Amino acid sequence: MISDTVVELSRLQFAATALYHFLFVPLTLGLSFLLAVMETVYVITGKTIYRDITQFWGKLFLINFALGVATGLTMEFEFGTNWSFYSGFVGDIFGAPLAIEGLMAFFMESTFVGLMAFGWGRLSKTKHLLVTYLVALGSNLSALWILVANGFMQNPQGAAFNPVTMRMELTSLGALIFSDDAQTKFVHTSIAGYVTAAVFVTGISAYYMLRGRHMELAKRSFRMASLFGVLSVAGVITLGDALGFVGGHAQPSKLAAMEAMWQTERAPAPFNLATWPIQSEHRNAWSIQIPYVLTPLLTHTLDTTVPGVDQIEADALKRIRNGIPAVAALKILSAEPTNASALAQFEAHRADLGYGFLVKRYAADQDVEKATEADIVKASKDTIPNVFLMFWVFRVMVACGLLMLAYFVISVILSLRGDVHLRRRFLRFAPWMIPVPFIACETGWITAEVGRQPWSVFGVLPTWMSASTHSVAYMVFSLAGFVVLYSLFIAVEIFLMVKFIRKGPDESHGGDTPMHEKPAPVLAGDLAVAALTMRKER
Question: What is the rounded distance in angstroms from the CA atom of residue 414 to the CA atom of residue 422?
């Protein structure tokens, strides 16, 4: 049996690498499309300022893109090194979207990124704009295939377990790609990236306006990003509601943990605005509630019952008992694949096979037929994720979303009024908003992944079975190595970003640099030209 410590360290390592990597992904997704919008304005208007805007933000995009690729490379290898049983069990399904994502990232996306970076002056305006749109499309399609794979883990569709080969097999590629969870999560994640980019651009533009530098570029960038952001944040909140609705049906345990619902309450149930969950006692120490709000918020009705932890654990008890014969039948089929009675027994209980695996962890000699009632009760309690963590990270994510909505509404109003550069108090606040969408994205990812526990594939394969049989020392060493390496990547990202932001855009058009910032020879030359012009006019 795999050590619980090794399983937890494997989870922690993958969580660390995923969360580090996800610091780069949203900005790549969002900036790619925002660059396409900026360049579209340049092609339509022909104004040089919009070319300079596109090129400046394009430099920051390229820094983020390069480090995002570097941090993402190792994650796909981790499935084979740290999650070997998982890879063998679901490789037929999980491998397909990952392979397509690799083709997207390294052939389509990276090729067009090179053309976008070095194509200025070599491609026509229209062709370069097309390349920029293809970069944006490639970035977002790359994310699509990752989220299709993740959607399968959240709500397995388009696959079935084969008792002869002892692994999951793909039955419908269409069902895998177009599952509600995968598609809703893809749109939600992509739009969250647009919000991230919009906050990033407005924050840096505000920094320039505060210092009176690159004013034309800063004001125009701020306006475009604000409009882009207010539409995106409205979309991400709407899609977040849809994702909660879809996820609530597929994973009621995640929903109960997010809302700290220990008992099933009659509809319409109250909403816990804030509480202190105590999981060992199945209760909340205290709660601040809003009556009647939870049911319409989660189900969009007033009379649909939202199951609490008590009901979910009771349902899990039944499913574990029903799954035990399926696991017992598999033991026979592993030695005698053609055993008709074992196959019939498996087919009668196959729907709850995963729940049978849950109790294997506690049964004597990992023989489910030796599982006691106490073992089954322990396994049923495992079906509820960490309620305290789920409750609070979800609320941090929602709070960040509402804060960004208010920020963009104010940004749009001030920008359209044309006096945002005079609102110094707001401009001082804007750069401090830059971390907020990253916090929202990270807490959203934690909500999705922790909420799936104890499953690596929900309802099918428990996490404790999925890990490789490494030693604790190996896991500690590799985890420490990844944390140090990825921390260096973050440091490099911040250093390069700050360096290029301080340097600012290349000044290829006149009138953008304030007089007091120009070097003395340039200023003297400007004055001389002005004097000669006035003399000729006389």
Answer: 9
